[in-house]
Design goal:
With 543 residues, the chain is an alpha+beta fold. Helices cover 37% and strands 23% of the residues. Helix 2 crosses helix 11, helix 15 (471-479) crosses helix 16 and helix 16 (485-492) crosses helix 18 (504-518). The longest helix is centred in the last third of the chain and has 19 residues, at 522-540. The protein starts with 5 loop residues before the first helix and ends with a helix. The chain binds flavin-adenine dinucleotide. Residues 25-31, 48-51, 55-58, 60-64, 66, 193-194, 228-232, 236, 253, 293, 339-342, 374-377 line the site of flavin-adenine dinucleotide.
């Protein structure tokens, strides 16, 4: 066990001492969103997360805040309407983390989605966004498609269309909600698992929580308990002593990252996979291209989900068929990872691909509110519904206002992202680092950069090819509740997704930095690096 920083002991004391209105279990996007909404409404809130914020599905997404063009095919119009509204809101509430992204959809001869169908679908897509998306779709000629994306195969290309969605940093969006919840008064603790529920008169009254660092166990008392554990829902329901059968239908999705210059995509491209006609994406991620995703029934539990060779090859083949010069092979894969969509089993009909991404809120046998399903994009709306239900259970039907709809996420108070990037560039003198700082921290970028004034060594890049600097790990520990190297290398930054050794060298450099600045001794460094290696193995190894 590693020594615990003082703020963790204080949080554990608070968890033990206080009587909460709501205890949220799970620090993915949904749990963090619920905690923030409830705290902003003035409720006394606790949130515990067994690993790190976003360590589950919420760091394995396609990083899109999107209306969900794919869901039109399955007739999930309400979901597209809700997602489009949330996309519009999040672009405003977190302009540093949620940014407009143009897509090109090429149409080839014999494509499953013909051009007329695509254009009709995109007209509906714009209509469901009330024509208030960043821009409306446009039909493209064959030449216009190739001018936008010269790497696409010209053979059999008929034309296509362009439309708008938004990209995000899934882990940092989740973190922003966790930090926003704490700023609004919630007690928020990562690396602290619920091991049992406490009960009285047939109702859950709280939970036993175990701190991972020290092994200390505390009992948390709360009037309402919310399960927001995504793919772990069935496991948590088992703690309630009964299960409604499967509450979640685990559908696994794999992504791969490859060097962007190999694919040559300029923006995002929507493809129809030649193997099976599935809609998938080729997405820009700075110097990398992310290709995803697959959709198969999850094998094994959510703690052990990994990509398989077969899934990786499927993605590479689909990309190669559309970007023939890429000629991607296994050796080009920088990283591959898998996540489980916690689809609500009650909404599932047919296969996982056509199952609804809408959410449900059920009441467990001990009165726990169990939220399942949804999407990263709709987390805020889900949170609002959950907190409304919690207020009903608390007998507070009139809890006023919907502050969650209006209060900017931490870092979001910017004139514009480009203005913030310019300011940062002037101070930092490195455009890529400035873009990273503005994009990750928004208007708070100076907090991360300030320590470099007295300590210029912190300006150094952690990896020479990537824009993360040595100041970020210290900031993550001091201000963003990072505890382990994995918290820093996988989720506060994306170093692990963008390096072929999955962040191993970066983790070593950071451990040396933390030894010098925070007094980690040789044993602590060794233990933390071994822990990192295990986590990176778990997330990035391919079966
Ligand atoms: P999770 O993020 O899994 O969070 C649950 C948390 O509960 C975990 O962190 C876990 O550690 C914690 N937990 C479990 N048990 C306990 C316990 N006993 N005590 C304490 N904590 C516990 N949606 C989009 O809108 N856009 C996309 O681009 C997109 N792409 C996707 C791509 C893939 C491949 C997948 C799989 C999903 C994608 N989604 C996307 C959907 C989206 O990612 C999920 O709907 C969302 O992240 C689920 O969040 P969650 O909080 O419910 O679950």
């Amino acid at each position: 066990m590693s020594p615990s920083p003082p703020w963790r002991a204080a949080a554990l004391d608070a968890l033990e001492r206080e009587r909460f209105d709501i205890l949220v279990i799970g620090g993915g996007i949904v749990g963090c969103g619920v905690a923030r909404d409830a705290a902003l409404r003035g409720l006394r809130v606790a949130l515990v997360e067994k690993d790190d914020f976003a360590s589950g599905t919420s760091s394995r997404t396609s990083r899109l805040v999107h209306g969900g063009v794919r869901y039109l095919e399955h007739g999930h119009l309400h979901l597209v309407f809700e997602s489009s509204r949330e996309r519009r809101r999040l672009l405003r509430l977190a302009p540093h983390l949620v940014r407009p992204l143009p897509f090109t959809w090429p149409v080839y001869e014999g494509a499953r989605v013909a051009e007329w169908k695509l254009l009709a679908g995109l007209t509906l897509y714009d209509a469901l966004a009330l024509f208030r998306n960043v821009g409306n779709h446009r039909k493209l000629t064959r030449e216009a498609v190739l001018a936008r994306e010269p790497g696409l195969s010209p053979e059999g290309l008929l034309g296509g269309a362009t439309y708008w969605d938004a990209s995000t940093d899934d882990s940092r969006l989740t973190l922003a909600n966790a930090l926003g919840a704490a700023a609004a008064g919630a007690t928020v603790l990562n690396h602290a698992a619920v091991t049992a529920l406490t009960r009285a008169a047939g109702r859950a009254t709280g939970a036993m929580v175990r701190d991972d660092g020290t092994g200390r166990e505390v009992t948390v008392h709360a009037r309402v308990i919310v399960s927001a554990v995504g793919p772990w829902t069935d496991a948590l329901e088992a703690l309630e002593g009964g299960t409604r059968g499967h509450a979640v239908l685990g559908s696994a999705g794999v992504h791969v990252a490859v060097p962007r210059d190999r694919v040559g995509n300029r923006d995002a491209v929507t493809l129809v996979a030649p193997q099976d006609g599935r809609v998938m994406f080729v997405l820009p991620a700075a110097t990398h291209t992310i290709i995803g995703t697959t959709e198969t029934a999850a094998r094994g539990g959510p703690d052990e989900v990994r990509a398989t060779r077969e899934e990786v090859r499927y993605l590479l083949e689909a990309c190669n068929a559309n970007f023939p010069a890429a000629r991607l092979g296994d050796e080009d894969v920088v990283a591959a990872w898998s996540g489980i969509r916690p689809l609500a089993a009650t909404l599932a009909e047919g296969d996982a691909g056509s199952a609804s991404r809408e959410h449900t809120i059920a009441t467990g046998p001990l009165g726990m509110l169990v939220v399942t399903g949804g999407k990263l994009t709709t987390y805020r709306a889900m949170a609002e519904d959950v907190v409304d239900r919690a207020c009903e259970a608390l007998g507070e039907h009139e809890r006023p206002g919907r502050p969650h709809r209006e209060v900017l996420l931490p870092g979001g108070a910017m004139r514009s992202l480009s203005a913030t990037e310019h300011e940062a560039a002037a101070a930092v003198g490195d455009a890529a680092v400035a873009r990273r700082l503005a994009g990750a921290y928004g208007c708070d970028w100076r907090d991360a950069w300030r320590p470099t004034r007295d300590d210029p060594a912190l300006r150094e890049r952690i990896d020479p090819a990537l824009p993360y600097t040595m100041t970020e790990p210290l900031h993550a520990i001091a201000r963003e509740r990072a505890v382990t190297l994995g918290d820093i290398v996988i989720r506060r930054t994306h170093l692990a997704f963008e390096t072929r050794d999955h962040g191993a060298a970066a983790a070593r450099r950071i451990a040396t930095l933390l030894a010098a600045r925070l007094g980690w001794d040789a044993r602590r460094q060794r233990d933390e690096l071994a822990r990192y290696e295990r986590e990176a193995e778990r997330v990035f190894s391919v079966d």
